[in-house]
Write a structure and sequence with these properties.
With 290 residues, this protein is of the alpha+beta class. The protein has two domains: 99 residues, Immunoglobulin-like; 171 residues, C8orf32 fold (Roll). Helices cover 16% and strands 38% of the residues. It is built from five helices and 15 strands. A hairpin with a 2-residue loop joins β10 and β11. α1 packs across α4, α2 packs across α4 and α3 packs across α4. The longest helix is centred in the middle third of the chain and has 14 residues. The chain is globular and about 60 Å long. The two termini are 19 Å apart.
């Protein structure tokens, strides 16, 4: 079990017409990730609306902000009880045996054009033994092919763009890996959150995107960017790609500054401090039905 505490501060300047906001910054409450306590602060006087999706566990915060400055702050303490499994025990699941809620993650999506990458995926990975090891090979291929480069992509960059440019940030690595997995009929989804243990040379702590792949009847985590420690990931939202799991979506005129994010490992109730570390086991923070 890992206990992590974090805080997020988001600062905006809202235009004269006002702006509608939808946020995905609340830590997800799942079978493996327990939210022990949390706080929410909004600088304007307004009535926020909170909604939790019963299937994805995504927690949405939405409201309309008035013109002027706006600060949204959120903090939480979470305990993460990772499900761990030996990789060799995890096989791929045939399409007809997949649960209904997993099927959506087989199809192409806005940023993950798996249909356009089918020929490449079959050439590179079609001959490999099916199972966790094939997914790991896809992860390693993306990690070795693409160079992490800050500010090298935009909100329009797709998996195909990343393949061509061979550079990107964590969400671009995630999109490419997802597209390649789906191209060989392996369900894969996008996960947004934050992480403990990222390389300080990459800059201040920021939101992080990673991948979950459905093998062995459970969603398992992969970090194709290789910039963080999967055991230190805090889940916020999941979706087909970044369009489904953006930390903030604005409907109106607004400008913003860089998020201010802090995260630390905390002792558990018995005073034991467990630091996230790299492990060889497959890791999951989802239940078998999540």
């Amino acid at each position: 079990m890992v206990r992590l505490g974090f805080s997020i501060e988001l600062n905006y300047q809202v235009a004269d017409a006002g702006c509608d906001f939808i946020f995905n910054i609340h830590a997800a409450q799942t079978r493996q990730q327990n939210v022990l306590g949390e706080t929410l602060g909004i600088s304007q006087i307004l009535q926020p609306d909170l909604y939790t999706d019963p299937v994805s566990h995504n927690r949405y915060l939405k409201f309309r902000a008035a013109p002027g400055p706006l600060t949204v702050s959120y903090g939480a303490t979470v305990e993460i009880h990772h499900h761990q499994e030996q990789p060799e025990n995890l096989g791929e699941i045939g399409v007809l045996q997949l649960p209904g809620q997993v099927l959506a993650y087989l199809y192409p999506s806005r940023y993950c054009q798996s249909d356009r990458l089918h020929r490449l995926a079959v050439k590179e990975f079609g001959h490999l033994r099916q199972g966790y090891s094939r997914v790991q090979a896809i992860r390693d291929w993306v990690n070795q092919r693409v160079t992490f480069t800050s500010n090298s992509s935009t909100g329009y960059t797709t998996a195909v763009d990343t393949l061509i440019d061979e550079s990107g940030v964590c969400r671009d690595f995630a999109h490419l890996m997802i597209a390649l997995c789906r191209a060989v009929n392996i369900p894969a989804r996008f996960v947004s959150g934050i992480d403990y243990g990222a390389d300080p040379s990459l800059g201040p702590t920021d939101f992080h995107a990673y991948v979950e792949v459905y093998v062995g009847h459970r969603w398992y985590m992969f970090d194709p960017s290789g910039t963080a420690i999967p055991m230190g990931f805090v889940r916020f939202a999941t979706g087909r790609d970044a369009a489904d799991a953006a930390f903030a979506t604005m409907f109106g005129g607004v400008s913003s500054s860089a998020p201010l994010i802090r995260i630390e490992a905390l002792p558990d109730a018995q005073g034991n401090l467990v630091l996230p570390q790299h492990v060889s086991d497959a890791l999951s923070t989802s239940g078998t039905e999540d």
